[in-house]
Structures
1.
Amino acid sequence: MNEPLLRFDTVSKTFGSETGGVRAARSVNFALHSGRALAIVGESGSGKTTCARMAMLEYLPTSGRVLFKGEPTAGRRGRDLATYRQAVQMIFQDPFASLNPAHTIAYHLKRTLRLHRPDIRSADLDAAVFEQLAGVKLDPAIVAPKYPHELSGGQRQRVNIARALAARPQVLVADEPTSMLDVSVRLGVLNLLNEMKAARNLGLLYITHDIATARYVAEDIAVMYSGQIVEWGDCGAVIDNPQHPYTKLLLSAVPDPACRFSDAASRIDPGAVEAVRRIAAKDQSEVVTAGENHFVLAV
Ligand SMILES: Nc1ncnc2c1ncn2[C@@H]1O[C@H](COP(=O)(O)OP(=O)(O)OP(=O)(O)O)[C@@H](O)[C@H]1O
């Protein structure tokens, strides 16, 4: 495979003091390639958003390096930083909070186009807005003049995706992009992200607590627990043949429509719960190969 778009090289992030602080990310390694999606999966507090924020250069790692196309991102300023901000775009969890209620959808998209697309003349901006909205399967004539509160959650998230894509990014960082949406529209938004990834050869960093959707969206997966990536590799291989007790636990917690709630608890292996508790605080470092493109930290 060629040079990854985005690479985390032994990245750690501690909030507070080195000794008594929260170790939100511990020696995290991953590579995101163009035209592929990498799902970072884990429970609340496992460190996923901290990794997303480091990818967006909002947080600096305490140690380790974040690389873009092989180049370290630390210390980027001025034009270099602006280029990175254009190339790596974020889609937030809350589609409403990320749009300004005082402005129309057309305003939001024009703003991004003015900022990142100097090649588009002012006279052509309206047409470009229409093109961006049509690209995410919204009716431009209806949606462009509306205010955010006049749209549904799913439509708002599509607008956010259109806005991110308007910058012509190479990487999309989507942090729980569907968790605040009605279940009925989630699939449509995930489908759209998948289509955009393929059509534009994007690298998609898909952050989720829902391992079931990871398989739907991503080619690669990294399972995160207590700040560490504990199992990673090909998404299908990891989900079909989980090796780490935490991955097993996460999979056994996925709701099964064929299973009654009262029976669901029996699917959770008490041994796995105990093993996961034991490993929470300790650093694991020995990597075991579980198959082609499938790796796990030894417990
Ligand atoms: N700015 C911060 N200051 C102090 N601690 C933080 C900060 N941001 C995150 N943390 C802590 O770091 C750990 C990882 O948090 P993070 O938000 O990355 O997890 P997450 O997996 O994204 O969870 P969620 O899905 O709930 O957002 C948590 O213990 C959290 O309390």
2.
Amino acid sequence: MERHFNSPAKINLCLHVLGRRLDGYHELAMAMQRVDLSDRIRIQVSDGSGVRVSCAGLRLDVDEENIAAKAAKLVLAESRRELAITISIEKNIPVAAGLGGGSSNAATVLAGLDKMLGLELGQRRLMELGAQLGADVPFFIYGAPAWATGTGTQLDALPSLPDVAYLLVNPKIAVSTAWVYQSLELTKGGELANLPRFSVVTRDDLCAALHNDLERVTLQRYPLLAEIKQLLLEYGACGSLMSGSGATVFGVFADYAEACRVAEELKRKQDWLFYPVKPL
Ligand SMILES: C[C@](O)(CO)[C@H](O)COP(=O)(O)OP(=O)(O)OC[C@H]1O[C@@H](n2ccc(N)nc2=O)[C@H](O)[C@@H]1O
Ligand SMILES: Nc1ncnc2c1ncn2[C@@H]1O[C@H](COP(=O)(O)OP(=O)(O)OP(=O)(O)O)[C@@H](O)[C@H]1O
């Protein structure tokens, strides 16, 4: 049995760090949205045993380390079945880029195998399994724009978001999420109740709400990212922000054609990665 799935990236429209827990994880409040930059994942299931992952052109195919393999093993353990699973990942989302590529792959494998094996584990259980793999994984199982709290695994619907396009820019810098959180100096603890409500209807509302506490760490280490944010504004973005722990920065544009036009102009000048995308 063989199936193919899309595994999309995410961006964080806002990311507030409210405090550090004793286990080192952070209490967050985030607005998250998936975008149509996707990896392609092929899952093959046959008789036998063992989970294998390949990822053409990238050193991500060491089975034990690939989060997609961990996801497959979790589903097999949950179903108490022994099967051979082969996963091939066509990576389009840059790695360690703040776009949640690995987390998305894990969620795609959890939900994909659930479907292929007819397990019907349900969204809630799949999200619980996802949380064992990484804080961003449940969001991808949730599959809609979300307000994420706790460590990022508690999800509520974000009812209205404006119809915009984004231009993602990554200057080929890989950033370790663990390093960013560890380096963050918390000046004062925040309270969820004191945060402004993320109520965004128009493009201007969205641009006014853009905020990421992790920029304090990553932009200080890589000042180029602040320059890219400024450049996007000069090229007509109505707002710009770093996604997640970075290094990808995005600009907000009125429509997809405009985001593509700016990408083409910037490509002529800079050897960075450019992805005009639409929200999902
Ligand atoms: C930066 C974001 O991508 C924003 O959506 C997430 O907060 C990170 O999600 P993720 O990469 O799925 O997170 P995990 O794989 O669980 O953890 C990666 C690293 O980030 C730290 N981490 C993650 C989530 C969180 N709420 N607090 C943390 O301090 C963990 O301690 C770990 O060192
Ligand atoms: N299938 C996978 N795809 C991408 N990275 C993977 C995968 N499996 C394991 N990894 C490892 O996970 C690390 C984080 O990669 P990922 O692309 O998910 O980062 P990210 O986009 O910054 O994540 P986040 O925004 O969730 O912090 C990489 O250093 C990589 O070695």
